[in-house]
Each structure stands twice: as C-alpha cells, then as structure tokens.
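[Help] Beginner question about ligand-bound structures

Sorry if this is basic. My supervisor gave me a protein sequence and a SMILES string for flavin-adenine dinucleotide and asked me to "get the holo structure". I don't really know what that means in practice or what format the answer should be in. Inputs are pasted below exactly as I got them.
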Amino acid sequence: MNKIKLQRDIPELASVDVCVIGGGPAGTAAAVAVRRCGRSVILMERTAQLGGMATTGSVAIWMSVGTVTGFYKEICQDLELSDFLGRDWTTIPMFVPLFNPFRLRHYLNRKLEDAGATVHFHMEFVAAMKEGGTLTHVVVMTREGLRAVRARQFIDCTGNASVAIDAGVPTRSGRDEDGATQPMTLMFMMQDTGRTITPFLPKGCPGYDRVEDLPQGRRLYWEDKATGTLLVNMTRVRGNGAKIEDASRCERESLAQVFGVVHFLQRNGFPTYVLAHVAAQTGIRETNQIVGRFTLSQEDLAVARRFPDVATQNNYEIDIHNPTGKGGCDERKVGLYDIPLRCLVPMSGTDNLLVAGRCLSASHVAMSSVRVMPVCFGMGQAAGVAAALAVEHGVGHVGDIDISVFHGRLRKQGVEFYGL
Ligand SMILES: Cc1cc2nc3c(=O)[nH]c(=O)nc-3n(C[C@H](O)[C@H](O)[C@H](O)COP(=O)(O)OP(=O)(O)OC[C@H]3O[C@@H](n4cnc5c(N)ncnc54)[C@H](O)[C@@H]3O)c2cc1C
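Answer (accepted):
No worries, everyone starts somewhere. Holo just means with the ligand present. The predicted complex, written as structure tokens, is below.
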C-alpha cells in the first residue's frame, strides 16, 4: 500500500483531566464517573447519539448479568424499567429490561449534562499523539475540521480499540484458529397498526419462506404488547465490523435482509405489523480486543473466578453467534465472575490509557459473555474512577492506582460487589 505523510498544525480545542472517546454504555458511564470524582472530562462521540448499540444500534434490551448496581442501577430506577413480566430491577438474577431507545438517548443527554461532562457529537477519533509512552493528545475530526484534545488520562470506549491501536497497544481479534469474529446484526422495530397489511418484498431483497431459511435460522424478537411494538434481532451478516470492506458490505446486505424478515413476519404471525424503525447502523458484536495486563479466559468464567482488583461482575452466559454465519448460537451458563481492572489496562504501548467496553482484554469465548451492556456500563464506571484517581494521585501508570481506594470510590458511587 502506498503511503503519504500528513503534517498539519492542529488547533487545540480543549485541555482536560480525562478524555473519553466513544459514547456507548462504557463511555457514558466512564464520563459520569470521572465527573463524580471531581475531575474535568470531555466525551467525544462520532454519531449524534449517546448510548452506542443501545441507541444507534437499536439494541433496546439489556441482558441479565446477576447484579444491578452503580450507574446501570441508576438508569433502571430513573427510567422505571421493567421486564416482560412487569418486574423491576430487584428481581436481580432474572432482570432483562426492555427500554425505549429514543427515551434512553434523551435521558443520557440529560444525565451527562447534569454530571457536568462536556459532550461533543460528530467528533471522530483520528490519531493518538504520544511523547514517549505517554499520550498527550487525541486528534479528532469535527464539523470544523481537525482538532486536538489534550488530557492527562484517556479512556478508549470505541468498542473497536481504535485509540489503543493507534497508540501502539497490541490487539487481537476473533477466534484463535482463524480470527473470525461474531457476525453482525441490523436491528429493527415493527409496529402493530391494528389492520391487515399487504406484505411487500422490495426488489433485490432475499425472500424467506421457512424458519430454517432465515439468516439466523430462527425467530428472535421481543414483543411489547402494551405498545404493540416488536423489537427484532433476526438479520445476520458475516464479517468484522472494524474492516473497511466488511463494514460497507454488511450495511447493504443487512438492510436487504430486514425487508426479507419483515416480509416473512407479516406472513407468519404479524399480519398487522409494519416496519417502523431501522437502526442507524448495523450492530457490531466483536472486533478487536486489547492485550491487557490480564486476559480473561473461558476458564475464568467456568470457575467463576474472583480477582482482588475486581472492576465489575457478570454472570451472563457464553453467547457466541456462529462466526461462519450459519446455525444458532453457542450458549453456556456461567456463575457470577469478576472482571479485573487489569483487563482494561493495556499490557504495553502507553501508560495513561484505559479501555472499557467490549474491546477489553478477553478471549473470543470470554468476550462473548462480557460484551453485554450492563457489564459495559460497569466497566466504564470503573475505568472512569480509575482514570480520575490516576490524575488525583499523580500515579505514573494508570494501572498502578491503589485498589482499596479504587473500590472505596466505586462504593461511594453506589457500586456493590458480591463477595468483596
Ligand atoms: C445485534 C446485537 C445484539 C445485542 N444484543 C444485546 C442484548 O440483547 N443485550 C445486551 O445487554 N447487549 C447486547 N449486545 C451487546 C452490546 O450491545 C454491546 O456489546 C455493547 O453495546 C458494547 O458497548 P461499548 O460501550 O463497548 O460499545 P458500543 O455500544 O459499540 O459504543 C461505542 C461508541 O463509540 C463510538 N465510536 C466508535 N468509534 C469512534 C471513533 N473513532 N470516534 C468517536 N466515537 C466512536 C460509537 O459511535 C459508539 O457510540 C448486542 C450487540 C449487538 C451488535
């Protein structure tokens, strides 16, 4: 590949204690946690929405993770969320709340504002600037061109480890044997109109007549009878969403599948429903994992391992959508296990960068369990506290903060750990 050199003078937009890149579940929780430690924070998000997959991806359901605590609990309480049976968050082991993604988007805007976090939309990470092993700035593309943001600590919540990779942190991707990642899914919603609809399949869209012909070979949706809405997770496209070609192809293929699945559902159980909303982008389950000070493994989940530097906890099952795109999912129950802070700390490359969210240091199998959103909120909150403490105590490496102070500060923010 030919290379060109880019040399530019870039205006410094801001200088803060902590810079968070990516405003999904991990990034929003991280930014609020930093502010609650009394430190300045800027959160940069490339879309127009906070919430990541929960809003931009319309994944409007949170899986049960064995605990409802900290920032995640606040959201469930504030939005008065309940599960299919109308139960609230106190039914902890079973709690699988459905939520309205548009309302969540508005809620997060207010929540970040109330916390005093500076949030910039339409800002996409471009490059990491380092002096020695220390990140000094990130360069971002904005509506006004390139800008630089200086910070003392950085948290990569892009899901793809984009900042970490550019900063020289080693990463790995997908299955050990071939690097294949879980497939992608474009979520959509249907709405009951109360009258029979004539099914229509636009040209160029696949038609499905039998369940086994469907992209996932199964029906997967959640019906909210009170509002007549159907949240559908039934498309499936192979590929790695962090690759240029795969990302573009999947947006075309998955949208064509949406129309095919709608056509199928209208003829099989939902004759009065219309397509009401398609997510702004295809949902990405798995791309890059950093190589951290510790890599969470399948065995850690199998034995429900505890760690002295626990950052958050989880018992969501191992849930691997087949990377080859065929068949169902590899689903295996696990007990409540810890995710240690070391999984968020790069093994090498920088001394003032953490990651939070699905790009943590974990094996292909382990990340399939960790990736769900309540856990990402938990990781984000922990990373925010850790970064703020590193600033407060002036530690040389963010991974070397005092763990008892870290746990004390998380508790002050309403985080409870089982068995600690
Ligand atoms: C189809 C699908 C179904 C799922 N089902 C469930 C479910 O039922 N329940 C559940 O709890 N979880 C589910 N998950 C998992 C969960 O949604 C994700 O793993 C989780 O959202 C990851 O959180 P995150 O904060 O790490 O990343 P994301 O949610 O991906 O957020 C990352 C954010 O960073 C931004 N960003 C990325 N790159 C840049 C950049 N360069 N510059 C600036 N901003 C950037 C993105 O726009 C985004 O807002 C599902 C995922 C998918 C894809």
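A couple of things worth pointing out: The chain has a mean pLDDT of 96. The first strand starts at residue 12 and ends at 21. Feel free to follow up in the thread.
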